Amino acid sequence: MSNISKKTRQELVVAVGERYRMAVKPEKSQILGEFVALTRYHRKHAIRILNRTAVPARPRGAGRSRIYDECVREALTTLWEASDRVCGKRLRPLLPLLVTSLERHGHLHLDETVRCRVLSASAATIDRVLAGPRASLSGRRRSRTKPLIRSQVRVRTFGDWADPEPGYTEIDLVAHCGGTLTGSFAHTLTVTDIASGWTEGVPLLVREGSLVVDALDRLRSELPFSLKGVDSDNGSEFINEFLLQYCKEKGIEFTRSRPHRKNDQAWVEQKNGSVVRRLVGYGRLEGIAAVEALARLYGVARLFTNFFQPSFKLASKERIGARVTKRYHPPETPCARLLASPAIPEPMKERLRAVLVTLDPLRLLDEIRTVQHHLAGLAAGEAVHVLPSRDADLDRFLRGLATAWKSGEVRPTHRKGPKPARHWRTRKDPFEAFWPRILLWLESEPEQTAKQLLLRLRAEEPTSPSDGQLRTLQRRVKVWRRAAARRLVFGAPAVLALTASGCDSSEASG
Fold it and tell me: Distance between CA atoms of 211 and 219, rounded to whole angstroms?
Protein backbone atom coordinates (compact mmCIF):
# COMPACT_ATOMS: atom_id res chain seq x y z
CA MET A 1 0.00 0.00 0.00
CA SER A 2 1.33 3.42 -0.92
CA ASN A 3 2.00 6.05 1.76
CA ILE A 4 -0.81 8.55 2.36
CA SER A 5 -0.26 12.24 2.97
CA LYS A 6 -0.13 13.94 6.34
CA LYS A 7 -3.35 15.83 5.60
CA THR A 8 -5.14 12.55 4.81
CA ARG A 9 -3.95 11.05 8.09
CA GLN A 10 -5.31 14.05 9.99
CA GLU A 11 -8.67 13.70 8.23
CA LEU A 12 -8.74 9.99 9.14
CA VAL A 13 -8.08 10.82 12.80
CA VAL A 14 -11.05 13.21 12.82
CA ALA A 15 -13.32 10.77 10.96
CA VAL A 16 -12.40 7.62 12.91
CA GLY A 17 -11.62 9.13 16.31
CA GLU A 18 -15.19 9.83 17.45
CA ARG A 19 -16.41 6.39 16.28
CA TYR A 20 -13.45 4.74 18.05
CA ARG A 21 -14.12 6.50 21.36
CA MET A 22 -17.83 5.58 21.31
CA ALA A 23 -17.27 1.90 20.35
CA VAL A 24 -17.08 -1.08 22.72
CA LYS A 25 -13.89 -3.05 23.13
CA PRO A 26 -14.27 -5.63 20.29
CA GLU A 27 -15.25 -2.89 17.83
CA LYS A 28 -12.34 -0.73 19.01
CA SER A 29 -9.89 -3.50 18.20
CA GLN A 30 -11.28 -3.85 14.66
CA ILE A 31 -11.29 -0.07 14.07
CA LEU A 32 -7.75 0.24 15.43
CA GLY A 33 -6.46 -2.53 13.14
CA GLU A 34 -7.93 -0.86 10.06
CA PHE A 35 -6.60 2.54 11.12
CA VAL A 36 -3.05 1.19 11.69
CA ALA A 37 -3.11 -0.57 8.31
CA LEU A 38 -4.02 2.68 6.56
CA THR A 39 -1.76 5.13 8.40
CA ARG A 40 1.12 2.75 9.30
CA TYR A 41 1.23 4.32 12.76
CA HIS A 42 2.55 2.31 15.68
CA ARG A 43 -0.38 0.67 17.46
CA LYS A 44 0.25 2.44 20.79
CA HIS A 45 0.64 5.78 19.05
CA ALA A 46 -2.61 5.18 17.15
CA ILE A 47 -4.44 4.49 20.43
CA ARG A 48 -3.18 7.76 21.89
CA ILE A 49 -4.19 9.97 18.99
CA LEU A 50 -7.60 8.29 18.54
CA ASN A 51 -8.39 8.79 22.23
CA ARG A 52 -7.38 12.45 22.03
CA THR A 53 -10.19 14.97 21.71
CA ALA A 54 -10.00 17.40 18.80
CA VAL A 55 -8.03 20.60 19.46
CA PRO A 56 -8.89 23.65 17.36
CA ALA A 57 -6.05 24.60 15.05
CA ARG A 58 -4.09 27.66 16.07
CA PRO A 59 -4.35 30.46 13.49
CA ARG A 60 -1.13 31.00 11.57
CA GLY A 61 0.94 33.90 12.76
CA ALA A 62 -0.86 34.17 16.10
CA GLY A 63 1.35 34.39 19.16
CA ARG A 64 2.68 36.68 21.80
CA SER A 65 3.91 40.09 20.81
CA ARG A 66 7.63 40.61 21.05
CA ILE A 67 8.62 42.13 24.39
CA TYR A 68 12.40 42.30 24.15
CA ASP A 69 12.81 44.26 20.93
CA GLU A 70 15.85 45.81 19.29
CA CYS A 71 16.01 48.66 21.81
CA VAL A 72 16.19 46.21 24.70
CA ARG A 73 18.81 44.17 22.82
CA GLU A 74 20.89 47.30 22.23
CA ALA A 75 20.65 48.30 25.89
CA LEU A 76 21.54 44.80 27.14
CA THR A 77 24.49 44.64 24.72
CA THR A 78 25.79 47.94 26.07
CA LEU A 79 25.38 46.81 29.69
CA TRP A 80 26.97 43.45 28.88
CA GLU A 81 30.01 45.24 27.44
CA ALA A 82 30.14 47.56 30.46
CA SER A 83 30.22 44.51 32.76
CA ASP A 84 33.17 43.06 30.80
CA ARG A 85 30.99 40.43 29.10
CA VAL A 86 29.84 38.34 32.04
CA CYS A 87 27.23 35.59 31.62
CA GLY A 88 23.50 36.18 32.01
CA LYS A 89 23.31 34.65 35.48
CA ARG A 90 26.00 37.02 36.72
CA LEU A 91 24.72 40.01 34.76
CA ARG A 92 21.12 39.71 36.01
CA PRO A 93 21.81 40.72 39.68
CA LEU A 94 24.26 43.40 38.50
CA LEU A 95 21.79 45.21 36.21
CA PRO A 96 20.14 47.50 38.83
CA LEU A 97 23.53 48.64 40.14
CA LEU A 98 25.07 48.99 36.67
CA VAL A 99 22.15 50.91 35.15
CA THR A 100 22.01 53.29 38.11
CA SER A 101 25.77 53.86 37.99
CA LEU A 102 25.86 54.52 34.22
CA GLU A 103 22.90 56.88 34.43
CA ARG A 104 24.44 58.72 37.38
CA HIS A 105 27.62 59.37 35.39
CA GLY A 106 25.69 60.37 32.25
CA HIS A 107 26.73 57.44 30.06
CA LEU A 108 23.28 55.95 29.56
CA HIS A 109 19.78 57.38 29.12
CA LEU A 110 17.07 54.72 28.92
CA ASP A 111 13.44 55.30 28.10
CA GLU A 112 11.26 54.20 31.04
CA THR A 113 9.71 51.36 29.03
CA VAL A 114 13.10 50.05 27.94
CA ARG A 115 14.45 50.43 31.47
CA CYS A 116 11.62 48.34 32.95
CA ARG A 117 12.09 45.63 30.33
CA VAL A 118 15.85 45.50 30.84
CA LEU A 119 15.55 45.22 34.62
CA SER A 120 12.80 42.59 34.40
CA ALA A 121 14.67 40.32 31.98
CA SER A 122 15.61 36.92 33.38
CA ALA A 123 19.07 35.39 33.11
CA ALA A 124 17.86 33.00 30.39
CA THR A 125 16.37 35.91 28.42
CA ILE A 126 19.60 37.88 28.71
CA ASP A 127 21.61 34.93 27.38
CA ARG A 128 19.12 34.48 24.52
CA VAL A 129 19.20 38.16 23.57
CA LEU A 130 23.01 38.24 23.69
CA ALA A 131 23.45 34.98 21.76
CA GLY A 132 24.31 36.86 18.57
CA PRO A 133 27.08 39.05 20.01
CA ARG A 134 28.51 36.08 21.87
CA ALA A 135 28.53 33.86 18.77
CA SER A 136 30.61 36.37 16.83
CA LEU A 137 33.23 36.24 19.62
CA SER A 138 52.64 24.99 30.58
CA GLY A 139 52.52 24.27 34.02
CA ARG A 140 55.50 25.14 36.12
CA ARG A 141 57.14 22.73 38.53
CA ARG A 142 57.73 24.21 41.96
CA SER A 143 61.16 24.14 43.48
CA ARG A 144 61.69 22.06 46.57
CA THR A 145 61.48 23.58 50.03
CA LYS A 146 63.34 22.55 53.13
CA PRO A 147 61.55 19.76 55.04
CA LEU A 148 62.12 21.52 58.39
CA ILE A 149 60.26 24.69 57.34
CA ARG A 150 57.55 22.74 55.53
CA SER A 151 56.84 20.67 58.64
CA GLN A 152 56.07 23.86 60.59
CA VAL A 153 53.23 24.82 58.20
CA ARG A 154 49.94 22.98 58.72
CA VAL A 155 48.26 21.34 55.70
CA ARG A 156 44.77 22.53 54.81
CA THR A 157 42.71 20.71 52.17
CA PHE A 158 39.77 21.89 50.10
CA GLY A 159 37.27 20.35 52.52
CA ASP A 160 38.79 21.98 55.63
CA TRP A 161 37.55 25.50 54.89
CA ALA A 162 33.90 25.00 55.94
CA ASP A 163 32.44 28.56 55.98
CA PRO A 164 35.16 30.99 57.12
CA GLU A 165 34.56 34.66 57.81
CA PRO A 166 36.22 37.32 55.61
CA GLY A 167 39.98 37.53 56.09
CA TYR A 168 41.04 33.96 55.32
CA THR A 169 42.75 33.99 51.93
CA GLU A 170 44.48 31.81 49.38
CA ILE A 171 47.56 33.11 47.57
CA ASP A 172 49.33 31.95 44.43
CA LEU A 173 51.89 33.17 41.91
CA VAL A 174 51.22 33.49 38.15
CA ALA A 175 54.26 33.49 35.89
CA HIS A 176 54.25 35.78 32.83
CA CYS A 177 56.94 33.78 31.09
CA GLY A 178 55.38 33.30 27.66
CA GLY A 179 55.98 29.55 27.79
CA THR A 180 59.73 29.87 28.36
CA LEU A 181 61.10 29.62 31.91
CA THR A 182 64.58 30.81 31.01
CA GLY A 183 65.67 34.27 32.06
CA SER A 184 63.91 36.77 34.29
CA PHE A 185 60.23 37.67 33.88
CA ALA A 186 57.40 39.28 35.84
CA HIS A 187 54.98 37.48 38.17
CA THR A 188 51.59 38.28 39.65
CA LEU A 189 50.78 37.52 43.28
CA THR A 190 47.04 36.68 43.43
CA VAL A 191 45.26 36.98 46.79
CA THR A 192 41.64 35.73 47.03
CA ASP A 193 39.36 35.90 50.06
CA ILE A 194 37.45 32.64 50.57
CA ALA A 195 34.27 34.12 52.05
CA SER A 196 33.64 37.03 49.68
CA GLY A 197 35.76 36.29 46.60
CA TRP A 198 37.56 39.64 46.97
CA THR A 199 40.65 39.40 44.74
CA GLU A 200 43.84 41.46 44.63
CA GLY A 201 46.75 41.26 42.22
CA VAL A 202 50.27 42.50 42.94
CA PRO A 203 53.02 42.46 40.25
CA LEU A 204 56.46 41.19 41.24
CA LEU A 205 59.60 41.89 39.26
CA VAL A 206 61.07 38.48 40.16
CA ARG A 207 59.96 35.37 42.06
CA GLU A 208 61.42 35.88 45.51
CA GLY A 209 60.19 35.16 49.06
CA SER A 210 60.98 38.56 50.57
CA LEU A 211 59.04 40.34 47.79
CA VAL A 212 56.00 38.22 48.61
CA VAL A 213 56.21 39.37 52.22
CA ASP A 214 56.50 43.02 51.14
CA ALA A 215 53.48 42.64 48.85
CA LEU A 216 51.35 41.06 51.60
CA ASP A 217 52.38 43.73 54.07
CA ARG A 218 51.28 46.46 51.66
CA LEU A 219 47.99 44.69 50.92
CA ARG A 220 47.07 44.48 54.61
CA SER A 221 46.50 48.24 54.67
CA GLU A 222 44.40 48.19 51.48
CA LEU A 223 42.10 45.22 52.15
CA PRO A 224 38.57 45.99 53.45
CA PHE A 225 39.00 43.30 56.12
CA SER A 226 41.74 42.23 58.48
CA LEU A 227 44.05 39.52 57.12
CA LYS A 228 43.51 36.51 59.39
CA GLY A 229 44.79 33.57 57.35
CA VAL A 230 47.03 32.80 54.36
CA ASP A 231 46.98 29.49 52.47
CA SER A 232 49.62 28.83 49.81
CA ASP A 233 51.04 26.02 47.72
CA ASN A 234 54.40 24.38 48.44
CA GLY A 235 56.60 26.63 46.33
CA SER A 236 59.78 28.03 47.85
CA GLU A 237 58.54 31.60 47.33
CA PHE A 238 55.91 30.88 50.02
CA ILE A 239 57.29 28.13 52.24
CA ASN A 240 60.31 29.98 53.59
CA GLU A 241 61.52 31.63 56.79
CA PHE A 242 60.49 35.13 55.62
CA LEU A 243 56.77 34.43 55.25
CA LEU A 244 56.70 32.04 58.21
CA GLN A 245 58.22 34.63 60.52
CA TYR A 246 56.01 37.42 59.17
CA CYS A 247 52.80 35.44 59.81
CA LYS A 248 53.91 34.64 63.38
CA GLU A 249 54.65 38.30 64.11
CA LYS A 250 51.33 39.57 62.70
CA GLY A 251 49.17 36.79 64.16
CA ILE A 252 48.19 35.42 60.71
CA GLU A 253 47.33 31.74 60.38
CA PHE A 254 49.67 30.21 57.79
CA THR A 255 48.67 26.96 56.06
CA ARG A 256 49.62 25.13 52.87
CA SER A 257 47.99 22.76 50.40
CA ARG A 258 49.01 19.20 49.70
CA PRO A 259 51.78 18.83 47.09
CA HIS A 260 50.51 18.39 43.51
CA ARG A 261 46.85 18.86 44.60
CA LYS A 262 45.76 22.06 42.86
CA ASN A 263 42.14 21.53 43.89
CA ASP A 264 43.15 22.34 47.48
CA GLN A 265 43.50 25.93 46.23
CA ALA A 266 40.44 25.96 44.00
CA TRP A 267 39.42 29.55 44.82
CA VAL A 268 42.66 31.26 43.91
CA GLU A 269 43.29 28.95 40.95
CA GLN A 270 39.93 29.97 39.54
CA LYS A 271 40.81 33.67 39.93
CA ASN A 272 44.17 33.07 38.26
CA GLY A 273 42.22 32.20 35.13
CA SER A 274 39.17 34.48 35.34
CA VAL A 275 41.06 37.60 36.47
CA VAL A 276 44.82 37.45 35.83
CA ARG A 277 45.00 35.37 32.64
CA ARG A 278 41.80 36.94 31.32
CA LEU A 279 43.27 40.42 31.69
CA VAL A 280 46.96 39.82 30.97
CA GLY A 281 47.06 36.66 28.89
CA TYR A 282 50.01 34.32 28.40
CA GLY A 283 52.59 36.61 26.77
CA ARG A 284 56.06 37.15 28.19
CA LEU A 285 56.44 40.29 30.32
CA GLU A 286 59.78 41.35 31.74
CA GLY A 287 61.43 44.47 33.04
CA ILE A 288 60.37 47.46 35.12
CA ALA A 289 58.10 48.87 32.39
CA ALA A 290 55.98 45.70 32.38
CA VAL A 291 55.72 45.67 36.18
CA GLU A 292 54.65 49.33 36.23
CA ALA A 293 51.97 48.62 33.60
CA LEU A 294 50.75 45.60 35.58
CA ALA A 295 50.55 47.70 38.74
CA ARG A 296 48.40 50.27 36.94
CA LEU A 297 46.20 47.51 35.49
CA TYR A 298 45.61 45.81 38.85
CA GLY A 299 44.96 49.16 40.54
CA VAL A 300 41.94 49.63 38.27
CA ALA A 301 40.97 45.95 37.88
CA ARG A 302 40.61 45.50 41.66
CA LEU A 303 37.85 48.12 41.66
CA PHE A 304 36.08 46.77 38.57
CA THR A 305 36.34 43.11 39.63
CA ASN A 306 35.39 43.53 43.27
CA PHE A 307 32.61 46.12 42.82
CA PHE A 308 31.11 45.27 39.40
CA GLN A 309 31.76 41.56 38.73
CA PRO A 310 29.23 39.17 40.35
CA SER A 311 30.45 35.64 40.94
CA PHE A 312 28.91 32.36 42.04
CA LYS A 313 29.54 30.79 45.44
CA LEU A 314 28.85 27.12 46.16
CA ALA A 315 26.01 26.59 48.64
CA SER A 316 25.86 22.79 48.81
CA LYS A 317 27.12 19.68 47.05
CA GLU A 318 25.38 16.31 47.16
CA ARG A 319 26.66 13.05 45.71
CA ILE A 320 24.24 10.26 44.82
CA GLY A 321 26.20 7.42 43.27
CA ALA A 322 28.18 8.83 40.37
CA ARG A 323 26.02 11.95 40.12
CA VAL A 324 27.07 15.14 41.92
CA THR A 325 24.46 17.88 42.38
CA LYS A 326 25.79 21.36 43.13
CA ARG A 327 23.68 24.29 44.25
CA TYR A 328 24.90 27.89 44.27
CA HIS A 329 23.95 31.07 46.04
CA PRO A 330 22.61 33.88 43.80
CA PRO A 331 25.53 35.70 42.10
CA GLU A 332 26.89 38.64 44.10
CA THR A 333 29.85 40.95 43.85
CA PRO A 334 32.60 40.60 46.49
CA CYS A 335 31.65 44.05 47.74
CA ALA A 336 28.01 42.99 48.22
CA ARG A 337 29.11 39.91 50.19
CA LEU A 338 31.26 42.04 52.48
CA LEU A 339 28.40 44.49 53.03
CA ALA A 340 26.14 41.59 54.02
CA SER A 341 28.71 39.98 56.34
CA PRO A 342 28.27 40.60 60.08
CA ALA A 343 32.04 40.19 60.55
CA ILE A 344 32.78 43.48 58.73
CA PRO A 345 32.54 46.55 61.02
CA GLU A 346 30.05 49.26 60.11
CA PRO A 347 32.70 51.99 59.48
CA MET A 348 34.32 49.77 56.84
CA LYS A 349 30.93 49.13 55.24
CA GLU A 350 30.33 52.88 55.05
CA ARG A 351 33.70 53.30 53.33
CA LEU A 352 32.80 50.60 50.80
CA ARG A 353 29.45 52.28 50.06
CA ALA A 354 31.15 55.64 49.65
CA VAL A 355 33.69 54.19 47.21
CA LEU A 356 30.96 52.39 45.25
CA VAL A 357 29.01 55.63 44.69
CA THR A 358 32.04 57.38 43.21
CA LEU A 359 33.08 54.59 40.82
CA ASP A 360 32.34 54.90 37.11
CA PRO A 361 32.44 51.37 35.59
CA LEU A 362 32.97 52.65 32.06
CA ARG A 363 36.00 54.70 33.01
CA LEU A 364 37.41 51.69 34.83
CA LEU A 365 36.82 49.45 31.82
CA ASP A 366 38.32 52.02 29.45
CA GLU A 367 41.45 52.21 31.61
CA ILE A 368 41.67 48.40 31.66
CA ARG A 369 41.45 48.21 27.86
CA THR A 370 44.09 50.94 27.48
CA VAL A 371 46.61 49.14 29.69
CA GLN A 372 45.78 45.81 28.03
CA HIS A 373 46.79 47.18 24.63
CA HIS A 374 49.96 48.56 26.18
CA LEU A 375 50.82 45.17 27.70
CA ALA A 376 50.09 43.51 24.36
CA GLY A 377 52.67 45.78 22.76
CA LEU A 378 55.24 44.95 25.43
CA ALA A 379 54.59 41.21 25.07
CA ALA A 380 54.99 41.52 21.28
CA GLY A 381 58.45 43.05 21.78
CA GLU A 382 57.76 46.58 20.54
CA ALA A 383 60.81 48.76 21.12
CA VAL A 384 58.89 51.94 21.99
CA HIS A 385 55.43 51.72 23.45
CA VAL A 386 54.24 54.68 25.51
CA LEU A 387 51.39 54.11 27.95
CA PRO A 388 48.60 56.71 27.40
CA SER A 389 47.66 59.09 30.19
CA ARG A 390 44.90 58.24 32.65
CA ASP A 391 42.68 61.15 31.59
CA ALA A 392 42.20 60.01 28.00
CA ASP A 393 38.92 61.01 26.34
CA LEU A 394 36.13 58.45 26.74
CA ASP A 395 34.16 59.49 23.66
CA ARG A 396 35.71 56.98 21.28
CA PHE A 397 35.38 54.16 23.81
CA LEU A 398 31.73 54.96 24.54
CA ARG A 399 30.75 55.27 20.88
CA GLY A 400 31.95 51.75 20.16
CA LEU A 401 30.66 50.12 23.34
CA ALA A 402 27.38 48.78 21.92
CA THR A 403 29.14 47.16 18.95
CA ALA A 404 32.50 46.25 20.51
CA TRP A 405 31.58 42.55 20.41
CA LYS A 406 31.91 42.61 16.60
CA SER A 407 35.68 43.13 16.95
CA GLY A 408 36.11 39.95 19.00
CA GLU A 409 37.92 39.58 22.29
CA VAL A 410 40.21 42.37 23.46
CA ARG A 411 42.03 40.09 25.84
CA PRO A 412 44.16 37.20 24.53
CA THR A 413 42.51 33.82 24.12
CA HIS A 414 45.56 31.74 23.15
CA ARG A 415 48.69 30.83 25.01
CA LYS A 416 50.83 32.29 22.25
CA GLY A 417 50.18 35.69 23.78
CA PRO A 418 48.14 38.77 22.91
CA LYS A 419 48.37 40.41 19.52
CA PRO A 420 48.48 44.20 19.85
CA ALA A 421 45.96 46.29 17.93
CA ARG A 422 47.46 48.21 15.01
CA HIS A 423 46.30 51.80 14.54
CA TRP A 424 48.90 52.98 12.02
CA ARG A 425 49.28 52.73 8.25
CA THR A 426 51.88 50.48 6.65
CA ARG A 427 51.73 52.35 3.31
CA LYS A 428 51.27 55.95 2.31
CA ASP A 429 47.64 56.95 1.83
CA PRO A 430 47.14 57.54 -1.97
CA PHE A 431 44.11 59.80 -1.32
CA GLU A 432 45.68 61.98 1.36
CA ALA A 433 46.08 65.01 -0.95
CA PHE A 434 42.66 64.59 -2.59
CA TRP A 435 40.56 63.70 0.46
CA PRO A 436 39.45 67.30 1.34
CA ARG A 437 37.97 67.66 -2.15
CA ILE A 438 36.30 64.22 -1.97
CA LEU A 439 34.92 65.13 1.46
CA LEU A 440 33.22 68.23 0.00
CA TRP A 441 31.63 66.10 -2.73
CA LEU A 442 30.37 63.59 -0.15
CA GLU A 443 28.86 66.25 2.08
CA SER A 444 27.05 67.90 -0.85
CA GLU A 445 25.99 64.62 -2.50
CA PRO A 446 26.24 61.80 0.09
CA GLU A 447 24.53 59.25 -2.19
CA GLN A 448 27.56 59.13 -4.54
CA THR A 449 29.41 55.82 -4.63
CA ALA A 450 33.15 55.44 -4.30
CA LYS A 451 33.42 54.45 -7.95
CA GLN A 452 31.63 57.63 -9.07
CA LEU A 453 33.90 59.71 -6.86
CA LEU A 454 37.02 58.07 -8.30
CA LEU A 455 35.86 58.66 -11.89
CA ARG A 456 35.10 62.29 -11.09
CA LEU A 457 38.51 62.72 -9.48
CA ARG A 458 40.27 61.08 -12.45
CA ALA A 459 38.47 63.48 -14.81
CA GLU A 460 39.66 66.54 -12.90
CA GLU A 461 43.09 65.30 -11.81
CA PRO A 462 45.00 63.09 -14.29
CA THR A 463 47.63 62.41 -11.60
CA SER A 464 45.04 61.03 -9.19
CA PRO A 465 45.20 57.35 -8.08
CA SER A 466 44.37 54.67 -10.64
CA ASP A 467 41.40 52.32 -10.73
CA GLY A 468 43.42 49.82 -8.70
CA GLN A 469 42.99 52.06 -5.66
CA LEU A 470 39.17 51.83 -5.76
CA ARG A 471 39.06 49.43 -2.79
CA THR A 472 41.06 51.88 -0.66
CA LEU A 473 38.63 54.67 -1.48
CA GLN A 474 35.67 52.41 -0.75
CA ARG A 475 37.04 51.72 2.74
CA ARG A 476 37.50 55.44 3.42
CA VAL A 477 33.99 56.26 2.22
CA LYS A 478 32.60 53.45 4.37
CA VAL A 479 34.28 54.93 7.47
CA TRP A 480 32.86 58.36 6.61
CA ARG A 481 29.34 56.99 6.17
CA ARG A 482 29.54 55.12 9.49
CA ALA A 483 30.61 58.28 11.32
CA ALA A 484 27.84 60.28 9.62
CA ALA A 485 25.21 57.68 10.55
CA ARG A 486 26.39 57.61 14.16
CA ARG A 487 26.10 61.39 14.39
CA LEU A 488 22.51 61.13 13.18
CA VAL A 489 21.58 58.29 15.55
CA PHE A 490 23.36 59.20 18.75
CA GLY A 491 23.68 62.97 18.49
CA ALA A 492 26.02 63.70 21.41
CA PRO A 493 28.74 61.04 21.02
CA ALA A 494 29.50 60.64 24.74
CA VAL A 495 25.94 59.59 25.72
CA LEU A 496 24.13 56.43 24.70
CA ALA A 497 20.41 57.26 24.45
CA LEU A 498 17.96 54.41 23.93
CA THR A 499 14.16 54.85 23.69
CA ALA A 500 11.28 52.44 23.32
CA SER A 501 10.53 53.57 19.76
CA GLY A 502 12.61 54.64 16.81
CA CYS A 503 15.61 52.47 17.70
CA ASP A 504 17.18 50.61 14.79
CA SER A 505 20.04 48.27 15.67
CA SER A 506 21.43 48.29 12.14
CA GLU A 507 21.83 52.09 12.20
CA ALA A 508 23.18 52.09 15.73
CA SER A 509 25.86 49.58 14.85
CA GLY A 510 26.92 51.26 11.62
Answer: 12
The pLDDT-based confidence of 141 (bands split at 50, 70, 90) is very low
How much is the mean pLDDT over the chain?
A: 81
Question: Among the CATH numbers 1.10.260.40, 3.30.428.10, 3.30.420.10, 3.40.50.2000, which is that of 147-356?
Answer: 3.30.420.10
What DSSP string describes 203-222?
Answer: EESS--HHHHHHHHHHHHTT
275 DSSP assignment: I
Planar angle of CA 227, 233, 234, nearest 5 degrees: 125
Distance CA 212, CA 189 (A): 7
**DSSP string spanning 367-402?**
HHHHHHHHHHHHHTT-S--PPPPTT--SHHHHHTST
Domain boundaries, the chain: 6-51, 70-135, 147-356, 435-509
Band (74; pLDDT cuts 50, 70, 90): confident
pTM for this prediction: 0.64
- pLDDT at site 509: 37
9-13, 90-94, 223-227: which range is least confident on average? 9-13
Helix (H) or strand (E) holding 254: strand 253-256
Yes or no: say if 509 and 406 are a contact pair by the CB < 8 Å rule: yes
Report pLDDT for 228: 93
Q: Are strands 496-498 and 323-332 parallel, antiparallel or unpaired?
A: unpaired
DSSP state of 284: B
Beta bridge partners of 190: 172, 201
What is the pLDDT, as a whole number, of residue 249? Answer: 93
Q: Give Cα 306 distance to the centre of its chain.
A: 14
Task: Identify the weakest region by mean pLDDT among 75-89, 105-119, 478-492.
Answer: 478-492
Report how far apart, in Å, the C-alpha atoms of 3 and of each of 6, 11, 31, 41, 217 are.
Answer: 9, 15, 19, 11, 82
